[in-house]
Amino acid sequence: MHAWPASEVPALPGKGRDLRIHDTATGGRITLDPGPVARIYVCGITPYDATHMGHAATYNAFDLVQRVWLDTKRQVHYVQNVTDVDDPLLERAVRDGEDWTELAERETALFREDMTALRMLPPKHYIGAVEAIPGIVPLVERLRDAGAAYELDGDIYFSVDCDPHFGEVSGLDAETMRLLSAERGGDPERPGKKNALDPMLWMAAREGEPSWDGGSLGRGRPGWHIECVAIALDHLGMGFDVQGGGSDLAFPHHEMGASHAQALTGEHPFARAYVHAGMVALNGEKMSKSKGNLVFVSALRRDDVDPAAIRLALLSHHYRADWEWTDQVLADAVERLARWRAAVSRPDGLPADALVEEVREALADDLDAPAALAAVDRWAARQSAGGGSDEGAPGLVSRTVDALLGVAL
């Protein structure tokens, strides 16, 4: 599966700072110090609906991670999946009387268009769950043969009790895990499971649903968590730098994935940092497909909203914050974009070397994009008052905003 085209990232003078970021597993900030190649895995979409602002906010956060790393002169090895077969996708296809593969392909294509418009840097590897199945089957067989998985009515379940580190990613108690498991795709009430929290690794073929040859597992399809584990281990290996996604993925998805990988390899941790973006709400409720309260990137683009303004609206909130999308949020972003563009359109201006360092410091400090925006606001306000004579300043500001914030002025 192919990703989307990369926009050019301008080179800036000097060198960026190492990223200090909040790690869900430890509950505090850690300084990431990758080697020459920084490794990141971000969980992708289930393509049964277009990109909404909650998606966009999540991918914007991890786009900033990439940009901070690139500014430190590192290479970035970024991997993202597409869950192109799953219950919600199949249910939507049945509801709409559409072939599930056509639905997945159309929505994935629209997602690529949205990411391109928003200038999100693409992953090096963009892998669908279906194409990963040949690599998933042997992992499930290994877990079963090692006693870390068991069969129940033809389905294969992972035993969370086999991983002594289970629970360390989310830090939740068992009852909270049980409640969230029921809400987020698990089946804690199924009779016969060794532990109510045990997640499915391989679902035996159901009538009327797609299935694949699973070798000794029989025909079926993979569970949600093992999909990402297989892709991450194949392309990044254990101990990669950042596992990313929305805060609703901390449990069960990232918790279960870490345990799968740790049981497979005998190593710990799966990822050095677990980084989670906040939720975006609309009309007082989390923006989600199940609620239908969505603002789509593609719809805003069709209404001729500048993608740079959409990106500024996302950047105006700290990535870990839960916030609400409103017309005023977008209006403020449109106005900010106009001010910035006016400021850099002058032939000269106030020196901007200090601004570059302010933006770098803000982003290195747990991706504090609002502080970075405020720094550019101050430069733009002084610029509008006149008095500067540095002919290179407007261009340097434009390159800084592009390179570090992904906004083209």
Describe the structure.
- The protein is α/β, with parallel strands linked by helices.
- The protein contains 13 helices and 14 strands.
- The chain has a five-stranded parallel sheet, sandwiched between helices. Strands 6-7-8-9 form a four-stranded antiparallel sheet. It has a three-stranded mixed sheet with strand order 13-12-14, covered by helices on one side.
- The model has no long low-confidence stretch (mean pLDDT 96).
Structural class by SSE content: alpha/beta
Distance separating the two termini: 31 Å
Strand content: 15-25%
Radius of gyration (Å)? 22 Å
Work out the helicity level.
40-55%
CATH class of the largest domain: Alpha Beta
Give the strand order, joined by hyphens, for the main sheet. Answer: 5-4-3-10-11
Please, how many domains? Answer: 2
The major pleated sheet works out as: 5 strands, parallel
One letter per element, helices H and strands E, the order comes to EEEHEHHEHEEHEEHEHEEEHHEHHHH
